[in-house]
Amino acid sequence: MSGERTLMLSGTYPAFKMLIEWWNYLAEHIPHCDPLVQIGLTWADKYDDRLGATNAYAVAMCESSIFFK
Prior knowledge:
By secondary structure, the chain is mainly alpha-helical. Helices cover about 75% and strands about 0% of the residues. It has helices at about 10-30, 35-50, 55-65. Helix 1 packs antiparallel against helix 2 and helix 1 (about 10-30) crosses helix 3 (about 55-65). The mean pLDDT is about 75.
């Protein structure tokens, strides 16, 4: 599968983690956004738990460790 035309699973999980880090940054530096960010982070945590329980997660981590070296 070529990453030039099709998004690859190996880039999805790191991008998801960066999104969570950005939301945490927003919650810390813009306090009035914190209640909304916390709602999003609650859903992101649920999604992350489900993702970690799949075989696709293991494949993505193996590919991302090779891809991001």
